[in-house]
Batch of 2 targets.
Target 1
Amino acid sequence: MTPNPSDREADAAQAFDSNHNEPPETETDAEAVRELYGHKIMPSAKVTLAEQIHDVLCEEIHSGRWKIGERLPSLSTLVEISGLSRRSLLGALEMLREEGYIRQEERKGTFLSAILPGGRSPRGAVGIVIPAYSPAVSPAYAAWGVGRMHWVQKAAVERNFITEVFCLEEGADPRRIDSVEGPFGSRVKGIISLCPFPHRVERQLPPDRIPIVFAGFENEDCAPSVYGDSLDAVCQLTQQVIARGHRKILFCGSPALTRRESAIRVRGHVEAMREAGLPVDEKAIQRSLEIPAGDLAGHREFLMAFGEEATAIVCATCERAQNFIAVADVLGIRVPEDLSLVAYGPETQMRLNAPGGQIAGISFDTGFIVTTCFDLLLDQVKTRQCPVRRILVNPTVQEGDSLSTPRLGPARLSELVHAVSAGNSETRALAARSR
């Protein structure tokens, strides 16, 4: 796909100007889901837009979209076809230049120099299975997938593998994914799946099957897999809150999780509470599973119904904690002075697009999970055997600014929650923000 000569404009010469004075990305650019060469690019706390663009361009290079020595599209063309900001695209192109993928020739444009950094020769390809993106998918789940994808691509390149990506549409039959006659080409030596699907593991791999490892899923039906121990993670998270002196603790689940994963996280909380001899509010848990992500009015109603005596909430996802913090800001509830919040998930800001500290929580080292996946996968490639069904990874506690010892007791929270009657301006504001 060589651009027309008319694309050779001045911006090609500026593509790697490290002194450019571009303004920061607009709010629209930072929040909207964009698309580049069929790949979704979306907001993520862990992977910048520039890094995601870099990954997409690497994938297109690996797929053979451009040949060595061929001119790449100009910056303005990339802006036009993606809707992404020049700043993000410049950042991605600069990464590619530093790694040796591309070179810039003054007044001529940008050209492909190598398939791998430093001109290294690939030893084959690694297939990556990703779930199809849908606007209905939780933003937190989508961002989680973006982070995993970034780490897998990075690990593949570090091991001199190029990558091939296959998008598994909802409802599609996955049984042929690891078949040599399936969606991946003959150069694919192994597959890492970032979405779960039924897969029977066999100790000795049949000759018509490609080795596969699932990253991040606790599911009896998909193996071999490497994943974080969610039960232990939520149990530790709740124990962390109890250790700070909290006794009235709510758990807020999430309908965005699979039924199995949701049950595991609930169980981890229940076990920690019962071990400490503390009551579990089962009704609150059940109600939380009915509140959609981003429904701030629903989160306020949850606080009004169950939060009279609560001093802390354990959230099944970071998105849940951010929703509660947004509600608290409107109601005048101070976090953590009046209400402590902790969450299961990656390190996350307390407030979207605003300073104000990090959410205290617990998560897993994604880099370690991906590295372990590759070790398991390459061992399968070498031996054609799969002696391991699953590997559990221990969680990592994240210190944050949303957890403290109970200070003013439950009375103040109860007073604040009920100070705003139904239908007033604060309720309308929450409803508007939910939309």
Note: Residues 126 and 163 are 5 Å apart (CA to CA).
Target 2
Amino acid sequence: MKKLRAQAALLLIASLILTVAGPANAATAPTLGTLESFGVLAGSTVTNTGPTVIGGDVGVSPGSAITGFPPGIVTPPGRILAGGAVADQAQLDSANAYNSLRAQPCDQNLTDEDLGGKTLLPGTYCFATSAQLTGTLTLDTLGNPDAVFIFQVDSTLTTASNSSVEFINGVSCHVYWQIGSSATLGTTTDFVGNILASASITANTGATVQGRLLASTGAVTLDSNTVNRPSCNPPVSDDTTEPTPTPTESPTAVVTPPTDSPAPTSPTVVGPDTVIPAGTVVSPEDIMFSDEPGAVATTTSTPTSSQNPSEAGSPVTFTTVVTQTGSNAPVTAGTVTFISDSTVLGSAPLDSQGRATFTTSSLTPGNHKITAVYQGGPGAGGSISKSFIQRTVSGSRARGGPTNALVRTGMDTMPLGLSGAGSILLGIGLLLEDRRRTLKKAA
């Protein structure tokens, strides 16, 4: 009887765990097709005010009006596509992606809950009405760079000023917001994800987006924004042929910073004529400016990446635009230094559009905080940009799939990686086998 009771107890534990971590529908990233190259796509018009920077194509279809570029800038190889075959196809692909996202089963209903203050795991989250973000939403990738997050919103999406979406345990470019009506990003919102809205999208002053703004029938309205199109690499094949670097239109340089430089111990003073060698270790927070005499204009630096994530050993291009704060006029003289974490990658001069472009192949696998430092110039003071995270992946690393199980903690149900459920089942199996052997010896 003792043997039977022991085995029954272990089986009951296994049954309970299987009930808690049972299989669920995996969130699946949609196929984007021609949307891959777009940062902004609208149905009727794209309008911009201020020094917006778009890392990707800007298009409209079936409308044909795109205004505000300049002062807005589309960084190479991005294009402005006011109608035409490419924009038409992009809208068809957007509709297919929208329908794919809408059709996926909901893992957790968050209707009437503010996303601010939540930490969510990969999966599909739905709202029967509108969705609101006030504060910080944290997305936990569980260490999987291919983790998929889908938000299905039947009505509108609105973010409050200074709200943000952040990653922990790595980053992913598979974040999708399917919006049944319109989306509005509040001032200085730091947003992550591809917004596919049935109607319109408005990005208020200073909002930044690591993703895409894709409006089906309405307008996309921009105001001094930065939109960095994520570039998800496809699964790596066995082909070992070296990739062909993408040409750029501006002069670039490639350097390899040393990894054993000593940490700085005092503030670094830079000016218009200062040369900071590649490989120098300097924290952006420790930089002080020695501006030219008569420098009266304060400046703003806005960096973007040509590809994020990028592959280790392959070139990635960083572009920053420097403008006068307030007037948004481009600053056309001076040098911009690009810093990865606390190591100088190199420098590049500003061109006639206030743009500096720098290319490097030296980034190692991992996450890198990229900062652009404008060192000042005639009549303009120096400035340090807001940093962004550049993810670099290894070309030989195997890619994991999306998660597809649920774990219940307290009253909330959240998706759990398949590896977690597999570990539980493996542990139960080993426990049962060990117990069986022990009982057999005792008999």
Note: The chain has three helices and 37 strands.
